[in-house]
Amino acid sequence: MGLAYMLGESLWFILPAYVANATPVVAGGGTPLDRGRLFIDGRRIFGDGKTVRGFLAGLAAGVLVGLIEGIVVNSLSHYLLLGFLLALGALLGDLLGSFIKRRIGIGRGGAAPGLDQLGFVIVALLLVSPISLPSWGVVVTILIITPPLHLGTNFVGYKLGLKSRPH
Ligand code: CTP
Ligand code: MG
Question: Per-domain residue ranges for the chain?
């Protein structure tokens, strides 16, 4: 299998997770998911960077991508389910990342190299795996391309004024 084919296959598969992860940057804001509550360590559970609207918008956008992919390949229900699980996994993974960051004392918007770039995609892959386990080549490709893609798109978002920090 050629490199370009593997890249295309991987992007096609993981696209709902990417869109779910990116959408809150433009659609998020408002009430935080933790509603300002603190964890037992006295720090925020997730922090102000994880909002109800961002979560729901990310989920909806990821499902929409699954829907469109399903229409393209004429396999609607399967791709809807894939889109839903990948989007849900991406958002839960992102939440888990923020939860871990708060526990180790990294404030909202602080960088956690590795966790910030890969956490969401790993949980997305875990959640979708019972339904559709991609080949190891696809999984490894996703793990390799996601950190630079995430850093790149976040930097563009920062330059465009969508994000206050470049990570
Ligand atoms: N966002 C949101 N709801 C989510 C996830 C993200 O509203 N569930 C929005 C927030 O405005 C957030 C931005 O998208 O600031 C960028 O997301 P991210 O970098 O994940 O959040 P951070 O602000 O860096 O916060 P954290 O340190 O918790 O990751
Ligand atoms: Mg961040």
Answer: 3-159
